[in-house]
Give the backbone structure.
Amino acid sequence: MDESIPRALQPPVAVALAKLVKTFPGPAALPGGIWAEPKWDGYRAIVLNDSDEVTLWSRQGKELSRIFPELCAAVRNQVPPGVVLDGEAVIWNGDRLDFEALQRRMFSTRAALPAIVHELPASFAAFDVLAVAGQDIRGVPFTGRRQLLEELARDWAAPLNLSPTTTDMEVAKNWLKDLPATGVEGLVFKGGSQPYDGSRSWLKLKTKTTLDAVCAAVIGPISQPQAIIAGLPVDGQLRIVGRSTSLSTRVGRELGRQLRPAQPGHPWPEQISETSLNRFSKDKGPVHLTLVEPIVVEISADVAWTGKSFRHGVGFVRVRPELDAADVELPPHLKNR
């Protein structure tokens, strides 16, 4: 049997994506019943074991083989040719996922990479299979693909891992409660009869926590801000840690009534780069900040924290006028991460 990768699965591969939901989906939300899996905080990766080489690709179609040599070697040794896996490349640092370690790899030189790999080796959490024995199986329902994946993974050893899944929603709810302590971002839900169609056909539920932060700048006019810029004390200084999602007209107007122009000695600049707020942004231009006197606000954020900022947009919940901005502290769950 031909064990080369099918032509239709030559990179870039269109990966299946998930729509964000705010609550647990009901049993009929997806066709064929609901299967829940952890949402790993790493790099989404498609791994191809062709007849003559193993390559690893990002969801955007960028080859990542060079920065994950240990994963390519493990696939070469433990996975038969003609297999295409979908999963997440992650790095564990102690008992937590370390996204910053992944970023270090991405920007490392060839000379520095071996030491980085040795210090914090990567793992691969496989959660789907797209081809087996050179045959494209994306049309097979998820339950069938999962069975094939479990057979492939039966004798795997680290750094290859089978991502767990469950149809028991009580188990899934415990995962949502317990796993964020390890850096897992939430849950992904799949339908048992769904094919792998490369669209946004799955669902995802992210873990959110609320915390007090300092709003010391906004985007837009002070009377009608479009978004808040949140700050937290990091390394002894009030640092920008994120931008909120867009505020509605009503919320922006109500917030604007409580904002006052900044006084001399404000700790932040009036202009920052877009990438300082979102390192994945394609817009490299400057962002103008409207500086304001610091006030305390309650925000909601997911677990994706770099150690100095939130990787995703935060949600604005409310103003906390009864609190003093000078008393805001870095929450314990964000320290030493």
